[in-house]
Amino acid sequence: MKKILEVQNLVKYFPVLGGVFSRPVGYVKAVDDVSFHIFEGETFGLVGESGSGKTTTGKTLLKLIEPTKGKIIFEGKDISKLSTSEMRSLRKSMQIIFQDPYGSLNPRLPVGEIIREPLLVHKIGTKKEQEERVVEIMKLVGLRPEYLHRYPHEFSGGQRQRIGIARSIVMNPKFIVADEPVSALDASVQAQVLNLLLELQQKLALTYLLVAHNLAVVRHISDRIGVMYLGKLVEVAETKELFSKPLHPYTQALLSAIPIPDPEVKKERILLQGDIPSPINPPSGCRFRTRCRYAKDICAEKEPSLVEVSDGHFVSCHFVKKGPVIEYTIK
User: Fold this and answer.
1) CA distance 216 to 264
2) CATH number of the domain that 13 lies in?
3) What is the pTM of this model?
């Protein structure tokens, strides 16, 4: 399969300013040495607790946030060093669906103008062609053309997210970052929007990076999943493999929290102690060690690498070893 996006050692630090002269006194290590790739036409899910760096990763890939270090290779071209003007032409191929379906829409513009705006910015087509394109896209996402002149406050949450999706696909992009696209919606509407994303992916040959904290959502739509913790990728695997055989202790804890809709089925719940540490001063060695039930001295002394333990299954843990049977060397 062809790689549409490859991320190599991506780093994003935010300075913490202090003192009379507002000089950097520390750094928030939001994304710290993250590497992965996304194949053309697939959905790559990125999961983890709030503060793990998922959204920052997604925005950095689109250069909505400038990376501190690392390479972002899109269709064979390193875009991490491109200027603002050079990135502008690339925006046609890379888009984003924001988490808040209301805050991401201009309340002063009618829906038709919101969806049409990217075409105006990039000077694509005549006014008549733009209007025809807007109507076509509205139908594609399940919105009636007569809604063209309505304003965002006149729509429900699900309809607003459809407007955001319409705006992101109006220029026929190849890659879309979906930043928790259903987290602000009612449960009954979430499935509709997810199914819409799947339909659009098939019709328009789209590639998604899906950022989410709801593992049920990620399981429904993703081909592969990456698990992030405190700015680091701790596990990457195909969806079926990850849910059937989670290897990292953090992934196991996340999956144990998924409720089973059967009162007779009993499931062991792995409770994580304490809160996620501060990204300003993360723990030495393995960043998950302060909450890990397997942690030993080596976890504080040495940071584990993300290694491939089976075909396409990568794990960052000292106690997961590759062999005839993948298992923990410590119980």
Assistant:
1) 20
2) 3.40.50.300
3) 0.92
